[in-house]
Amino acid sequence: MTYTFNDHWITETLRLRESLWGPLEDTAEAGRARAQGGDFSARLLTRSRLLAQREAVDTTLQRWQQISRLVLLFFCLLAVLAGASVAAGALGDGSRPVNLTLAVAALLGLHTLTFLSWAASFAVQPGVTGSLLTDAWLKLTRKLARGPDAALLPRALLELMTRSRLSRWGAGIVSHGLWAIGLLGALIALLALLAARRYTFQWETTVLSPDTFVMGVHALGWLPSVLGFPQPSPELIRASGSLQPLPADAQALWSAWLLGVVTVYGVLPRLVALALSIVVMRRRVARLAVDPSLPGLAELHDRLMPASEATGIDAPAERPATDIAPRPRPQTGGKPSQQALGLELPADLPWPPAALPAHAHDLGVIDTREQRHRVLEQLRREPASRLLVCCDARQTPDRGAFAFLTELASLTTEFRIALLPDDNTPARRLQWREHAMRAGLAPEQVAGEAASAFAWLTHAAEAPTLGNSST
Amino acid sequence: MIAPDSPDLPTEVAPHSSAGSGTPTGTPPLKLAVVGHTNTGKTSLLRTLSRDPDFGEVQDNPGTTRHVEGVKLLVDGSAAVELFDTPGMEDGMALLDYLERLAAPGERLDGPARIQRFLDSPESLRRFEQEARVLRKLLNCDAGIYVIDTRDPVLGKHRDELAVLASCGHPLLPVLNFTNSPQHRIEEWRSAMARLGLHAVVEFDTVAPALDGEERLYDKLALLLDAHASLLAALKQNVVEQRRQRQTDARMLAADMLIDIASLRLSSPAQTDELEKTTETLRRLAREREQRAVEAILRRYNFRRADFPHHSLPLQGERWDMDLFHPQALKDMGIHVGKGMAAGAMAGATLDMFTAGISLGAATLIGATAGGLWQGADKLGRRLAGRIRGYQEITVDDAVLRLLAMRELALIATLERRGHAAQGPIDIDALIQEKADQLRKATLPDALSEARASPEWSTLNEHYQPSARRTQAVKRLAEALTDSGT
What we know:
The complex is a heterodimer.
Chain A: H1 5-21, H2 27-36, H3 40-55, H4 57-91, E1 98-99, H5 100-120, H6 132-144, H7 152-163, H8 167-196, E2 201-202, H9 210-226, H10 234-241, H11 248-286, H12 301-304, E3 308-313, E4 338-343, E5 361-366, H13 369-381, E6 384-392, H14 399-410, E7 412-420, H15 426-438, H16 450-462
Helix pairs in contact in A: 1-3, 1-7, 2-3, 4-5, 4-6, 4-8, 5-11, 8-11, 9-10, 9-11
Chain B: H1 9-13, E1 30-36, H2 42-50, E2 69-75, E3 78-85, H3 92-102, H4 111-120, H5 129-140, E4 143-149, H6 156-166, E5 172-177, H7 186-195, E6 202-203, H8 213-224, H9 229-262, E7 266-268, H10 272-300, E8 318-319, H11 327-354, H12 362-388, E9 392-396, H13 398-416, H14 429-441, H15 446-452, H16 468-485
Helix pairs in contact in B: 3-6, 4-5, 8-9, 9-10, 9-13, 9-15, 9-16, 10-13, 11-12, 13-14, 15-16
């Protein structure tokens, strides 16, 4: 996809708009920009193109451009008129002889000044550019084009032009163009007046010598003479200084000389500068790039160039993890026995704990598969009347642990879980309790405090016939 | 041997590479299954690696993730790696028992064959439904990332589930999560992994990853996956580049805000109540501007707005002076007078055009003088007039600018170190002190002093004018922030 200057302009307009009034809702547009691919700049331009279509910024832009063209046309007209009137003013109505010095100054004076200042502006920092003609043009357009976003468009244009160092050349096109048109208008008016009226040319001076004029006229006329314009002879120049009338062909020579000077020093430099501006402008516009680190654009990076893209799930989850159904408990048989074991206890929870009653049978810390098998085997042979399992409250309860716990519970008459250590982690304790309930254990079977669980085990030693406290 | 001139070659190869998702080198994305015990932070790892705070569901609860969910890591818009989040392994011991029963006596089954047989068994849909999802995905992937909560002790169940996972026949990279927790058991886990033959281990705290955490993770993966080393190198390169780009962008956002606030200038009549009202406006504008910058930086880093608690800017200092004769202001005045003179000359000359010769020069000269004065007045006149009327101009104090710079730099540094899995609020207080010490010593960057003298630079001022000098100043300031921020 190719992007035009207008796309950059719109991007800048939307950037200003979003940073002034907050971000636009762009889910659909950002999605399409992502789908279209390309680098970040391309996606930014696509997004703003789509947003501009939605927000009708593009039509506002077109209208703005139409108005600006009309204003420019009006300026061109003014330039032609101004040029023609300068020509008319310089030549006068023919009743008096034309003063050559003043005519050349009137025709080319201001043009030379502004042209030189334009040339001099290259020596100054690139920050200070801009032309009064361009400013006036933009100001008038701004006055005429009203409506939402219309105020942002010229501001965006200025921002874009200054940032991408286009302003000098853009302003150059406008001002050189207008000057060229104005000077062409002057040239045509000169031709028309010279064709239609009889003028006499002369020069006047109070302090200068005639030789200075000969030199000046020849110096000015040299470049036009290279291009084929006639150069008055020194005798003719000297003769034009006096008040005696000159023959008609001498006047024609002077008028041709004047036309040559206006063409070569007026129209041609402006046309050359205009062409240069157009060439540079075109080249720079072709290389126009979005600066992706600009405030307002940088934030969009992850939206348009996401680091990742979710690809969805394999299959929806079924009901929560298969719970283990409670199994029947064995009847109390044989002599009562109190047993205790630690399940997957880490090194910082020493086993057996000091609070463990001395008479309770210690089954040790059970961690590996083999240890689990061994304990289950042992309990199957001789079921315990009371079994206390100590778990690490800080660990996450899991299905595997509870599968083992319910199996242990099924092999004992009375079964309790103690969560060690006693301190903190209330959330985790709650998770253990919930897991225990899901596994078919009663809430009181998970001891609130380790001490009460050890007391339960001790108590059992004194009163072994106490009723089954479970479920 | 295929004939080199065979025109059919590309079409024969094409079906193997998945269309549209190829990497720059054209290889299909590397598939990695993120596996581990329940509640070890697998989804968190994916959130942090994908920089997507909305991926999956994260809770400090077992069995939060109950399905396999994929995410592609993109390099320049195309997928380089596809990661799969899996449910936690919870019943590894029973599964290992079951796997042993699946092989008939005397039958020799290798790991993957045994897993395949398990996946065809009825229990893979019932008791081991979750584990079956994990193993099915891992069989399908190039490698597995085994996530470990280092706060847990090394237990038999972990070894057993690693044994099950290893029988899928793919390389496994243990990733140590929550390494910043004081209760971590990193050494214990490292030696346990070494005993199991897993020597490539990488530390990656998903909540607060090390600055080069991702690079180290991809380096280690490249060690395990020789064939995909170049792909992983490209991914790593991209990670580094993106981080640098984010930093630059964030500093530009901060610098733009600072320039806006430094050049903000409000004028007010000198009455106390008017001054107070204007000061309030100044504070409100500055606060709102900071808020916008903070939001932009959060968006740039893809963090949620809600994660950053509102810090109201403690604005105390305002400057009441009128530095009309700031050198920069004078320079500007010169430029404007020059431009004005040209305009005046033009106006005068236009007059001349119609009366050519008679007044030539005189009118131009008068016009130039008048225009110069007018243009100068346009810029400074309003301020001068204000001064004559006893108005005062209020700007933000240097101390406030320093504070703003500090807060933004601390925010950027905090976001750099924050994983997208983090669920706590973003807290910049820890880093703000560090930045404060650095910035107190440094002088105010010259870009800011230039901004002070250029009220038309502030987008908060009604007379804002775009200028190339402002753009330059933002860039210079962003660079100055880089120097003091690292």
